[in-house]
Amino acid sequence: MFENLSERLERSFKILKGEGKITEINVAETLKDVRRALLDADVNYKVAKQFTDTVKQKAMGMNVLTAIKPSQLMVKIVHDELTELMGGKAVELNLENRPAIILMSGLQGSGKTTFTGKLAKMLKDRQHKKPLLVACDVYRPAAIEQLKVVAETVGVDVYTEEGNKNVVEIAQNAIRKAKQESYTVVIVDTAGRLAVDEEMMNEISNLKQAINPDETLFVVDSMTGQDAVNTAKEFNDRLDFDGVVLTKLDGDTRGGAALSIRTVVTKPIKFVGTGEKMEAIDVFHPERMADRILG
Ligand code: GDP
After folding, report:
1. pLDDT tens-digit series, residues 62-97
2. What is the predicted ipTM?
3. Is residue 184 a known part of a binding site?
4. For residue 50, what are the CA distances in angstroms to 87, 111, 222?
5. Rounded-to-integer distance, Cα 105 and Cα 101, Å
6. What does pTM read for this prediction?
7. Is the CB of 70 under 6 A from ligand 1?
């Protein structure tokens, strides 16, 4: 695996013993290490460059206390800056409306349907919500089936209209039912494609306009590296989503996609998926992700 950033910095700062201040000359080698660590963690090249420029400005001229090694000070600056750039604090969902409407978006295979189940379970168990799942992935019969299985696994209801391909109609009918039957959250699962295409984007942006959701979440597989950033940008340009869900963080990625996406689309990451089971969901904590990226 990767050498972690603290170890790298320790190495590059060995030559600096006796220096009392961080200066341009002694910081250059260190910043290369920081950049390499970020690239290893799958952070987008431009984002990594921009990040190290900021860190450089913050670090320059800082007094190094005798109690703290320059390498430790740099790790702290880098860690704090990463945390800050990823939003600082966890960001909650806006669920004030009754029912609150959540629209899921993302490519096929990103983990949308799985996450829909996980979120429903979390809201039911921890916030005593009454969720209704809605099957708007109407092109693959298997997708509707999968959502039914997920709903049953987590013990919530699901709304489907088999044979109807009009997703706006399905979602509106589901919302009507939710109002009549006192559901407090409606989570709409939509169709994803293997790559971004115009038809899919039109469908989901029409759906968004028609149902005016409280939260539009974009789900992305953290293992897809640089592609994750491009996909996030394309979805955000069309949907202006409210938050990101980063799935498959149980894989061996360092999670640099979190920093890249946050920097490029400037929308908060709200949740992470950490496994296939319905319990494998966490609220996104920027500080923990900074730890993970740095290793
Ligand atoms: P969708 O096409 O976007 O609805 O994606 P699915 O929910 O069907 O997920 C695609 C695959 O990824 C399935 O095999 C899921 O079990 C798996 N998956 C989803 N989320 C996670 C996760 O956080 N970790 C892991 N390891 N697998 C996941």
Report:
1. 776 655 677 778 888 899 999 999 999 999 999 999
2. 0.99
3. no
4. 16, 30, 21
5. 13
6. 0.93
7. no
